[in-house]
Amino acid sequence: MSEVIGELLGVGHQYDEGPEIFKGVSFRIEKGSFRFITGLSGSGKSSLLKILYLGLKPKWGSVRLFGEDTFQIKPALLPLLRQKIGVVFQEFNLLDHLTVIDNVSLPLRVRGVDIKRSYKHAGELLEWVGLGDCLKAYPPSLSGGQKQRAAIARAIITRPQLLLADEPTGNVDDEMATKLLCLFEELNKSGTAVLITTHNQRILKKFPYPQLALREGTVFQQLPIEKKAS
Amino acid sequence: MNKDQDLPLRNDIAARFVPKIIILMVYLGTLCSTFTFFMIHSTLLWEEKLTTNLSIEIPFFSDISSNDLQTQVTDLLQKTPGINKVEVVSKTEVQTLFHSLLGEDTNVDTFSLPAIVDVSLNKRDAFDVENLETRLKSISPLIQLIDHRLWQSQVSNLLFTSTSLALLLTFLILCSTLVTTFFATRTSLLIHRKIVEVLSLIGATPSYIAKQFQRNTFKQGLFASSIGAFLAFLTFLGIYFLFKNVGQTFVVTTSFFCEVLAIFILAPFITSFFMMLSARRAVMKALCS
């Protein structure tokens, strides 16, 4: 049985006095697993991911990550947990005052890697995602697709144990989307658990991995589309 | 890229007003510390020179020989335990004293000037002045004993109070500088909330984020406080030459000048160091709570 690196038990959330986004959500993330989170717009996919990358505290339930109860963990240990997670934010969250290479090398620098080495790694990765000629560019001058790729490069540069990607193919064409998913697969093969939110049916067909479908405020485990069709 | 550029701290609103406040604070603070050192030095110099604790005034009598009385008094003083030194003030010195009181044009030679004997005590507090006065009165009831310790202690208390006040003022100025830094850092944290959030989410520790603020505050503090200290030094030189030009003696010994110079050199480093700690505290308090 694979090692469990993340576990949600009866997790529910609502913003302020608004309606419950989801309730009683329970699932496990095994080491080296690859899954999609699917659901309609507003079904709470991004909020679920936010809970997993410790950017949101759910109102109900418990979340365990890498063996730690995130509700009871000491604040000083939170950054150490976050360092094991790579996140591709839906809004990219690139820092506008930093160049693309500075943005991508940032996770390495916060982990204490020296600037020279972090630049070397970031340069190679940016070359791979097709941003080799944008190293010194600032995010506001990039297109949506370029920002997306830079955000992905930043999330995977540390080879995290868990990669959470919120609609990572939302702003790129099919060819680039496939290329990025291949990159995620490569990372997954080296042991990283990958959890991606998407509603891109073409991607779901092309990459038949298990899905967690968010419907009516709860999660249903689904088989890959291909298998279902057969 | 520089290590402290993950946050664009140089261009935020806090960066615009903080240096101006720091310049003013350091200017006032260094002047205040200079004044404190001046007071301490002056007090020490004054106490060093002040060896006379008592003065005995022997009036001029036409019928008795002043010299006889003087001899009797000095004999008595020399035999009295607790007295360290007995010194008869020369006639010239007494005349100079009267000249300074009555003016240079006054002919004091025609006055019946009293003889003055200065007395230094071994232990100021343990000496019985009343007993000595009784014994002096037995020689002549017109002999006066003046105890300088009363006014000396008053002046000493005044100097001590002034020094303490100046020290307190310096401390308060430093405190307000640190409070300003603390709140400016909190403002800066609010301005860059989004970036701080992203940094936290990609695994930056509060200490890493605090270091960004620390470095920036130290640089900013060092620059601003160097200007403040330089302006204070110019003011000090101005006061020194002003006193010199009007013919007043502004007591500046070499050691005092060295200490003042050290204040002006060290003040920017000390201030920016404490500002740096204050910035760190502000960030850590906000991110770890």
Task: Briefly characterize the structure.
The complex is a heterodimer of chains A (230) and B (289). By secondary structure, chain A is α/β, with parallel strands linked by helices.
Structural notes for this entry:
The complex is a heterodimer of chains A (230) and B (289). Chain A is an alpha/beta fold. Chain A is built from 8 helices and 10 strands. Chain A has helices spanning 45-52, 78-82, 100-110, 115-128, 144-156, 174-189, 201-206, 225-229; strands spanning 4-14, 20-30, 34-39, 60-65, 68-69, 85-88, 162-166, 193-197, 211-215, 218-222. In chain A, helix 3 (100-110) runs parallel beside helix 5 (144-156). Chain B has 289 residues and is an alpha+beta fold. Helices cover 70% and strands 8% of the residues of chain B. Chain B has a 4-stranded antiparallel sheet with strand order 2-3-1-4. Chain B is elongated and about 100 Å long. The model of chain B has no long low-confidence stretch (mean pLDDT 85). Classes of the chains: A alpha/beta (230), B alpha+beta (289). The interface between A and B is medium-sized, with 25 and 19 residues.
Order of helices and strands of chain B: HEHEHEHEHHHH
Number of E-state strands of chain A: 10
pLDDT averaged over residues of chain B: 85
Number of helices of chain B: 8
> Which pair of protein chains has the largest interface, and what are the residue counts?
A-B, 25 and 19 residues
Give the terminus-to-terminus CA distance of chain A: 27 Å
Structural class given helices, strands, pairing of chain A?
Answer: alpha/beta
Strand order of the biggest β-sheet of chain A = 6-7-8-3-9-10
Strand fraction of chain B: 5-15%
In total, the number of strands of chain B is 4
**How large, in whole angstroms, is the Cα Rg of chain A?**
17 Å
Task: Decide which structural class fits the backbone of chain B.
Answer: alpha+beta
The portion of residues assigned to helices of chain A is 25-40%
Oligomer designation: heterodimer
Main sheet of chain A?
6 strands, mixed
User: Strands across the major sheet of chain B, in which order?
Assistant: 2-3-1-4
